[in-house]
Amino acid sequence: MKHRPLEASQLCKRCAPESLPFGSTAELEPLSEPLGQERAVEALHFAVAELRPGYNLVVVGPSGHGKHSFVESMLRAAAAAGEAPPDWCYVHNFRTPHQPRALQLPAGRGRGLVSDLEKLVEDLKVAIPAAFEGEYYRSRLQEIEEDFRERPERIIHEVEEEARRSDIAMARLPSGVAFAPIRGGEVLAPDQYEALSDEDKERLQRRVAELQAKLQKGLRELPQWAKEAREKVRALSREVTRSAVDQTIEELKGKYSELADVQTYLEEVRADVLEHADDFRKDEEEKGLLAEVTGKKSFLRYRVNLFVDNAETRGAPVLYDDRPAIDHLIGRIEHRAELGALVSDFTLIKSGSLHQANGGYLILDLRKVLTYPHAWESLKRALFSRELRIESLSQALGLTSTASLEPESIPLRIKVVLIGDRTLHHLLSEIDSDVGELFRVVAEFDDRIERTDETTLAFARQIATIARAESLRPLDRAGTARVIEHAARLSGDSRKLSTCWRDIQALLDETDHRARERGGELATAADVQRAIEMRLRRRDLAQRRVQEAILRGTLLVDSSGSKVGQVNGLSVVEIGQIPFGWPTRITATARVGDGKVVDIEREVELGGALHSKGVLILSSYFAARFTRQIPLSLSASLVFEQSYGAVEGDSASLAELCALISSLADVPARQSVAITGSVNQLGQVQAIGAVNDKIEGFFDVCRSRELTGEQGVIIPASNVAHLMLRDDVIEACEQGRFHVWTVETVDDAIEILTGVDAGLMDESGEFPEDSVNGRALQTLMSFAVIAEGFRKFVKVQVQDEGNEDDADD
Amino acid sequence: MMPTTEPPTILVRLDASTEARAAIDVAVRLATAIDGRLSGLFVQDVDLLRLAELPFASLVGHGGELRRLGPAEMERMLDAEAERARRWFERGAAEARLVASFRVVRGRPLRELAAEVAELVVMGGTARVISPARRGRLVAVAPETPDESLLQLAEQLTSEPASALLMAPRAALAALRELVRSRPTRVLSWHLGVLPGGEPSRIARALARERPGLVLVQGSLDEQTLRELRSMITCPLVLSR
């Protein structure tokens, strides 16, 4: 036989259990670093060691490959050697209350400051009233008050004395003081007054006016005296308060003597307490609802908001923020309802993950950072400015202009690690040049590793690591080998192993479940196999629906007989990350035309660019192969029958070419054979993806009908290395009930498909007459003759019509 | 001094220049202590009415402002003060459940007082006019031959331990010292002081220097001395005749 199917041994690269140098995975040492990610690990180490700004890290790679867990464990190891960052507190700014001050304290000292200030207030609530109850204050206050109160009395008294000397009485009335001349101890009667001489009247009036003026002058000084008295009372209050406050404040200053900012703050507290000593003296009885609220607020300004507490932090912090919304990332200012209004103060400032991780490492999911509004911009601004300034989203977007807090910014010293997929990172780098400046280190996680003896053993150790970490049963040697084969299948390449640890772990979990059900201490190959099958079975509904439609004849796919211009192509569909093969009927028709191959899929805009490219290549192939010396007078149509969705990729181009050649040569193609592969314009067959799924898809259809021994699949020879077929497929091939052929050229595929010699071109450019190519060429030549004849006919007709017109003229 | 059959009368004498509340408070305390009855007398001073009729009559307000003052306004002012005093008086008496009466007369305050028959007279102070009531100590003025009733009265006017000043002519001090020492309970801690003799104004000045919160005088005072006292002290004055 000219074209031999592949041997069973070529259909899957087995992992021989006996090649594994252990009895079970329990004997293996766990791996400390992710398998096959040496370059990524190297990048990570570099980023951690490089302390200059901008050396933040992006870790890219497909999901499920252990990026997150490795990055976190590696950062934790690096952070353990670091120092715990300082505590940060927000305190009241006594000068500009809307700009709360940030205080830095050594890690763990923040809690002490909080309790010290609470205790200070409680102490002062007792000490200050006590000082004001003391004899010193009371007597001094009495002096001031009496001095003030007696001043008007003294003035009145002085004026009264003066009036008396002038025989003028001073009458005190509820609304003031009046003067009247007296005679014999009684006020002068009006008639007595009238009886006085003008001179006496004038003298009396003048004297009364003088007394009034003197009294007025004295009384008008009362506000100034009141002010002076208030000043004296205030000074006395300050003096008395200071006596109660100084010792406590000085003790606190001594406690925080090495912290200049705290010292300054305590001085400000002292000054404020001296100014607001009355707040500490209010009686409980005085407190209504409003007084209670305002009272609490007055003491609230002495509280300390321990914003970042690193008392329990050992080493540098490592934090993963799984919700990097702007408020979660850079902190927020909360509000509380108070007497019907929303108010805020420095105690309501809440830290964000950047604050919590300041001095250490913050891990973020790239996609999430980009998804939350303004989070990416806020992160960049913080990294560029190297300081953290809290603002709300509405403030950041300039949507609100209401008065709000503007907390003092905090210096930022952090390494941010973004984790995401490669495509997203590339896209972001394209549109945002800041990415390269802020995230200068990129660690790429590979999704597969080379399959060698060394990596196979390392892979087994990775299996052992997962099993140990997840408390799963160890796998025996055969079970381990089966997992390794599955990893190769997942990678889509028999020479590679997938590093998608999420999938491997899911398989191990299920394997452990099977082993537990069985009561085995070790998980075996049968457990692994059962787990693989059950996983597929649970998720193969779509695949079963397609199979059912084919078997019931709803989807027209033959698996026996022969047809001209019709072949079975192979598609692969991925639903929920589960790929499965799906045979599709491809038909071709040919007629006289202008050298154009019509792709029906493209015409109706169901064909993707790659598929259209594959079809266009067919025209070139025909031109190069058959019609170098004759015009290509062909018009052909290609159809994916019963395809109702988009068709992408060029893996059907070989099948389409075979269908077209079958049509041109009028040679029937075997319907028991499906074909996949892409073709170039020289007729060489090229590798395609998902070869295993495609083969198994057609195999399942054939097996459901009946394996006749005629059925099989044609694949590119370059895809042999990718074969990791299911055991049942391999078994059928071993028994000669199914076949996998490899081809390198279109001619190879045509011969397997038609059973007829393709035919080699001789020196004169001719093919053997009975060969498929010869028959196709004959058809093309006949098309060319017909086309030429038709062109001449049309030309004559046109000329005749012209002559008739001339005659008419 | 105290009749045993008739309840003693405490006369509260008020006029437009006095602070009614403080005087009424003192009188109520006193009446409650000695089970007496209250008699309120508001004197509308005819001298004030005369004053308002003068062509240049003006009033210097507490803030130093000057405005014209006429008879009609003075009438209104006196009526309003009398009404205010009456309200305070009746409320104080009712709260203490005391028998009380209140009258308004027109005349000269000190002269009208002399005409009244009452064992105890409380006169309002003038403190309200300029400054709020002060908290000074009790100052008792004893005659040359003092008796224990003055100390007793002083203690009846006092609800909690405090210090008080007892002023008397030098000659009476020794007897007073004995009286003070012999009292079994001492709500008040007494200090003794010399009351100068001579001009009424000297006595008044000596009292004023002590900045009293309440002045209690035993014995009768002539009109001149009373006038001096009224002009120099701003607290209520209790006369025990």
Characterise the protein shown here.
The complex is a heterodimer of chains A (809) and B (241). Chain A has 809 residues and is of the alpha/beta class. In chain A, 49% of the residues lie in helices and 16% in strands. Chain A is built from 28 helices and 30 strands. Chain A has a seven-stranded mixed sheet, sandwiched between helices. Chain A has a five-stranded parallel sheet with strand order 8-13-16-1-17. In chain A, strands 3-2-7 form a three-stranded antiparallel sheet, with helices on one face. In chain A, helix 4 runs antiparallel to helix 7 (222-255), helix 7 (222-255) runs antiparallel to helix 8 (260-275) and helix 24 (653-665) packs across helix 27 (746-754). Chain A is elongated. Chain B contains nine helices and eleven strands. In chain B, helix 2 (46-53) runs antiparallel to helix 3 (71-95). Chain B is 41% helix and 25% strand. Chain B has helices at 20-34, 46-53, 71-95, 109-115, 127-130, 148-156, 173-182, 200-209, 223-232; strands at 9-15, 37-45, 58-60, 66-68, 100-107, 120-123, 138-141, 162-168, 188-194, 214-218, 237-240. Mean pLDDT of chain B is 83; it is low at 128-134. In chain B, strand 7 (138-141), helix 6 and strand 8 (162-168) form a beta-alpha-beta unit. Chain B starts with 8 loop residues before the first strand and ends with a strand. Chain B is globular, with a radius of gyration of 18 Å. By secondary structure, chain B is of the alpha/beta class. The chains are: A alpha/beta (809), B alpha/beta (241). The A-B interface holds A 146, 149-150, 152-153, 156-157, 160, 169, 171-181, 186-190, 193, 204-205, 208-209, 212, 215-220, 222 and B 16-17, 45, 47-48, 50-66, 69, 77, 80-81, 108, 126, 128-132, 134, 211, 231-232, 234. Strand 5 (176-183) of chain A pairs antiparallel with strand 3 of chain B, so a sheet runs across the interface.
